[in-house]
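User: Could you walk me through two proteins back to back? I'd like the raw sequence and the structure tokens for each, with a short line separating them so I can tell where one ends and the next begins.

Assistant: Of course. Protein one, sequence then structure:
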Amino acid sequence: MRLRGVKRSSNVSDRRRRRSAGGTAGLGGIGLIAVLLIGAFLGVDVTPLLQDDQVSQSPSETRDLSQEEVAAGDFAARVLTTTEVVWGEIFPAQLGAAYRPPELILFSGATQSGCGGASASTGPFYCPADRRAYLDTAFFATLSRELGARGDFAAAYVIAHEVAHHVQNEMGILPQVMELRARSSPTQSNQLSVRTELMADCLSGIWAAGVEDLLEPGDIEEAVNAARRIGDDYLAQRAGRAANPHTFTHGTSEQRARWFARGFQQRQVAGCDTFSTDRL
């Protein structure tokens, strides 16, 4: 992805220099994978965050960022700018409204959000309560080394996916889904979660189409591969577990890749309506 001429977004807050007084540290790759397998990955279900009350956000000292961390932060800020440009054009054109971009919070190890405490084990997430996306940039390495989703556009897709949840929030979809999930059975709640996630994948595809002039050969394949690597069935198989569709919260590898491709091909928000179709 060619980002050299793209400016850094001003809607980024970097908390990575802080050290928590309690010494809270993020999980390594293996610990993160274990959490991903139970569904706490790229989701909007904030229950795990609300239950986590042991994350301290009382900074006692600061630290210097590594060159890798600096580069990851710069990359994330530039990718965020591309989402602001794309959705800033799509909202008035297709939705008849102005787009209000989210703030991206970069953290290391642990942080606090409007949805509660979070650590690296939570993975990237969007908090509807404070309209912010949260990212521990160390996740990029986990995505590549542990999950096999390599390439800069795979990492960009992760950011675009969380911004897509913000788009859903701006459209009024997330509040409705969260209300429905609160009074649904566990199986029905999971089905609603899957539809929410697949819609976000589709919206990510629309973003990818909007930055087509920045793409390099193989970029779309990187995003599709990333979508496949975070499918519920693939993660279950990787852990040696039987895939149980009733427990899926994000969709299968095939579904995630297909809905991303649908967004990229159709380029219409209306075409990403996963709630009105019988075929996911």
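----
Protein two, same layout:
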Amino acid sequence: VWGGGVVFGEGVLVGVVAVAGLAVGTRGLHLDGLADLADGLGSGKEGAGALEVMKRSDIGPFGVVALVLNVLLQVGALAQLGSREGAMVLGVACVAGRLAVTWACREGVPSARKDGLGALVAGTVGWLGAMTATAFTVGLTFLAMSRDSWIYLLIAVGLGLIAAWEVRRRAVRRLGGITGDVLGSLVEVTTTTVLVTAAALLT
């Protein structure tokens, strides 16, 4: 975000550079998870049928729509926030996305498959670990913004986590548990919700 602001000034290219940087840095892992989950849930199939759709190497119409909307919302929100404020908000949004994964891996949340990333991490986070990660995120939110603005960013983080909770709930109900794709989608859903909400509240 900061680099885009230096090179291009304020505008949509700031958001494009930032979102592209995130995609390259994560090798598109979370975006891939978002597309796969959208295809799986959009297929209308339950359990193993939806998991089979998600496992395919191609991407379906639901996945395409989810990716396009997600990227457009992130780019638009960052362009509206501007390079200086956008950098702070994006940092907190990315941390919030990982916090959503932490809560999705708490004890009592099952894995949808017997193998894969979901099976490896499902149920591995206790309440103390989840609360510690939450406290860290709240503290980071406070440090990232001014005294007058941090509460709005905290609201954005809260809404992002609520959105992730709803996606996780639907995924567990339809798939029988979490998978690596579900976790990746939670990162994107949370990040996007935080960015869009922050853009609405802070500008």
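The two ends are 17 Å apart (CA to CA).

Let me know if you want the two compared in more detail.
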